[in-house]
UniProtKB/TrEMBL annotation:
UniProt organism field: Arachis hypogaea (Peanut)
Span of the signal peptide: 1-20
Domain of life: Eukaryota
InterPro entries associated with the record: GH, Glyco_hydro_79
Keywords: Signal
Family named by the database record: Belongs to the glycosyl hydrolase 79 family.
Name of the protein this chain belongs to: Heparanase-like protein
GO cellular component: membrane; plant-type cell wall
Amino acid sequence: MGSWIVQLLMLLCLLSFVNSQVETGGDAHLKGIVAINAKSVIGTIDDDFVCATLDWWPPQKCDYGRCSWGLASLLNLDLNNQLLLNAVKEFSPLKLRLGGSLQDKVIYGTEDYNKPCTPFVKNESEMFGFTEGCLPMARWDELNIFFKKAG
């Protein structure tokens, strides 16, 4: 794959990230300059590169009257679903990104976290409309077992 294509893909990923991190309201605009130096390579990917994101949104996340996340987030995805496991295996070598808008609001329920591990709670006054939420280590272990099974 040509280096300019790789740089374009990286730029699109960067723009997608910036777009997901900036909340604009009303007539707000995000302006900037993007320079692409096609003379040097800053990163490469395999020709068979496939990437997917598992996000943190709880079922209460709604946009335009549609609550489409349901049971499709890191928090509640059915990791015992054989169809899901087979699909992930078929995309091998799939790169799974764990993240999304709520990533900065995730607290990990590790042994040294001495508070209750509570889920995200809908709160419109909070950034992205949710409070901080905790990922219990038992769920982290379940995710890792799923990733190992999927290869």
